[in-house]
Specification:
The protein is an alpha+beta fold. It has eight helices and nine strands. Helix 3 runs antiparallel to helix 4 and helix 5 packs antiparallel against helix 8.
Length: about 260
């Protein structure tokens, strides 16, 4: 009997703990916080009656924010995008496929601009101090970066090589053929350090991609199984990935996807 009571108590405890970990929207109807209401609209059931009150309210709050914002306010663009979404749908929630489509269009625009300018829109200037050492703020020490010379070499390709690479990436972005042998990999470097991501496939199939800190870069590779690895601000990153379609990988000092 004691065991049964203990089991019931344990189930109740974990159930209550799970509820506490969830978002509490019990007082959401009183809220005037844009981000809080926006989160509710993303999470709430489609038939929740509070939607009819909160959606118009958050849209008015966004309009008011945009109207009174400073010209240099970085949040204005986000507010405009959220407002545009709310005019077309119940919330700002977008699907994984929609997110991929947005990323794809941004990449197409970026590489089209580079081709039109006949050079990279990102100007890279090697810095001995930046690329010879990676500063580990946690231990307040400088970690020698043995990849600095290789990083600089990968970044400083000739204009012709860069143009050929850009054309190849654009062709891959426009190619929707599921039977294509190659696809594009975009890597976002969210860390404070320059990195090289190495992609090791079967046999001698290997690729490497240099990505400056707080930037992104793309590469077209053969479809297949790959081991991705990199040194991100002194921390080792490694992940096995099956590449059968265009993907985006985000790397940072603390997280990687």
């Amino acid at each position: 009997m004691k065991r049964i009571l203990l089991l019931i108590a344990s189930v109740l405890f974990f159930s209550l703990s799970a509820q506490k970990r969830g978002k509490d929207y019990s007082d959401i109807i009183k809220s005037n916080n844009i981000y809080e209401i926006n989160a509710f609209l993303r999470d709430a059931h489609p038939d929740d009656p509070r939607r009819s009150v909160l959606k118009p309210r958050v849209m008015e709050l966004m309009k008011e924010y945009i109207k009174n914002a400073h010209p240099a306010d970085q949040k204005v663009k986000d507010m405009q995008e959220m407002l545009a979404l709310l005019r077309r749908r119940p919330s700002t929630k977008i699907t994984f496929d929609e997110m991929n489509a947005i990323i794809k269009q941004k990449q197409i625009a970026k590489y089209k601009a580079e081709l039109a300018a006949k050079q990279s829109t990102t100007v890279y200037t090697p810095s001995n101090a930046q690329n010879t050492f990676v500063v580990n703020t946690a231990s307040n020490a400088a970690i020698p970066n043995a990849e600095a010379e290789e990083f600089n070499m990968l970044m400083n390709i000739s204009p012709i090589e860069h143009q050929n690479k850009t054309v190849k990436i654009l062709n891959s972005l426009f190619d929707n053929d599921p039977n294509a042998k190659e696809c594009i990999v975009m890597i976002q470097n969210q860390s404070d350090c320059n990195i090289i991501v190495r992609m090791e496939g079967v046999g001698t199939t290997k690729y490497r991609l240099a990505i400056p800190a707080h930037s992104d870069n793309s590469i077209v590779i053969e479809k297949g199984q790959y081991l991705f690895n990199s040194l991100v601000c002194g921390a080792q990153y490694a992940s096995q990935k099956t590449i059968q379609a265009a993907i985006m990988v985000a790397l940072g000092s603390t997280t990687a996807k």
